[in-house]
Amino acid sequence: MKITVCGKQYDIDFNFGVLTKVCEECECNTPAVLEKISQGDLIILSSVIKHGILFNHEDFDTEQVSRMPIGEVLDSFVVVGKLVADGMPKVKESKKTKVN
Q1: What is the C-alpha to C-alpha distance for residues 51 and 83, in angstroms, rounded to an integer?
Q2: Residue 87: how many CB atoms within 10 A of its CB?
Q3: Reduced to 3 states, what is the DSSP secondary structure of residue 86?
Q4: Where are the beta strands (DSSP E) in 46-99?
């Protein structure tokens, strides 16, 4: 998935490595990170953006995240929300039996 930071597009991921780094940086556990993302916590959001981009772009200047225009920040909520949702386990529909 792509995210725009200061007018430039980057590939961003949300995987185990990214989640681990966000947990370490923000000093909270996985359920807290996921809850704070859903609440729109800007500290968690910025950490997800930084580590999610660094996963693919090791030379990414993380200071760019704090320079993001508000419009890009608002757009990033959608991108990060989709990344998290796409990474969640899918519920399988159970086979229904016919009752006569």
Answers
A1: 13
A2: 13
A3: helix
A4: none
Tally of CB atoms within 10 A around 77: 13
Angle between helices 16-26 and 42-54 (to 10 degrees): 140
Region 73-86 average pLDDT: 92
pTM given for the model: 0.84
pLDDT in tens, 80-97: 999 988 887 777 766 665
Round to whole Å and give the CA distance between 54 and 78. Answer: 19
Q: What is the pLDDT of residue 14?
A: 94
Contacts of 41 (CB under 8 A, 6+ apart): none
98, HSE (Cβ side, Cα atoms, 13 Å): 1
Distance separating alpha carbons of residues 82 and 87, to the nearest angstrom: 8
Q: Under DSSP, is residue 83 helix (H, G, I), strand (E, B) or coil?
A: helix
